[in-house]
Amino acid sequence: MKRFVFCFIAFCLVALGCYAQKGTTAYLDEKKGFKGIVLGDSISKYKDMLVAKDGGYEVSDTTLLHIGNEVKLSLILVKEYKGLVCSIAASAKKQYGTKLFDIFRSAYGSAYVQINKFKENYIWLTENVELDFLNDGKYSVFVYKDAKLELQKAKEERAKINQAADDL
């Protein structure tokens, strides 16, 4: 009986540890998106909440334009590649920049890279997701990208460029 209880407790601890904890990049990988929009999902899944705009889609649901009670977003844009969500970008007024950075650091940890030490430009990177955050100028902008779709897109664009170069 003691052995059963020990095994049961060990199993429960392992099962609970399987979920990514907030404050780690594993949590970024697990969420794989923003405000319920998941990178890599079919764009048609979100058509009822998106309006076509500038080669992408703008989120029309204004209830999504807040992060808690802390940050009011100006807009959320979703881009697709081959019918799949490949990036989700959002912006807020610069006054929210520090709060946004603190929120990202709380959610995804301190495993970020600062691109330029003179600018507030940070990247959280996992195998599947990249989050870019820029707090510069009038706005704070952040972009969630599906790393695998972005790589596929870049390879196809490079192939087109190479093909055009062969045509010189």
The proportion of strand residues reads: 35-45%
Most strands sheet? 9 strands, antiparallel
Derived structural class: alpha+beta
Overall geometry: globular
DSSP summary, beta strand count: 11
Distance between the termini: 78 Å
Low-confidence stretches: 4-18
Number of helices: 4
| Rg value | 20 Å
Roughly how much helix do the residues carry, as a percent range? 25-40%
Provide the succession of SSEs. Answer: HHEEEEEEEHEEEEH
Mean pLDDT: 86
Short description:
With 168 residues, the protein is of the alpha+beta class.
Task: Describe this structure as you would to a colleague.
By secondary structure, the protein is an alpha+beta fold. The protein contains four helices and eleven strands. It has helices at 2-17, 25-31, 97-108, 147-166; strands at residues 33-34, 37-38, 50-53, 56-59, 66-67, 71-81, 84-93, 112-114, 121-125, 129-136, 139-146. The radius of gyration is 20 Å and the shape is globular. The model is unreliable at 4-18 (pLDDT under 50).
What structural keywords apply?
alpha+beta, 168 residues, 4 helices, single chain, nine-stranded antiparallel beta sheet, two-stranded antiparallel sheet
Helices, strands, pairings?
Layout: H1 2-17, H2 25-31, E1 33-34, E2 37-38, E3 50-53, E4 56-59, E5 66-67, E6 71-81, E7 84-93, H3 97-108, E8 112-114, E9 121-125, E10 129-136, E11 139-146, H4 147-166
Antiparallel strand pairs: 1-2, 3-4, 4-6, 5-6, 6-7, 7-11, 8-9, 9-10, 10-11
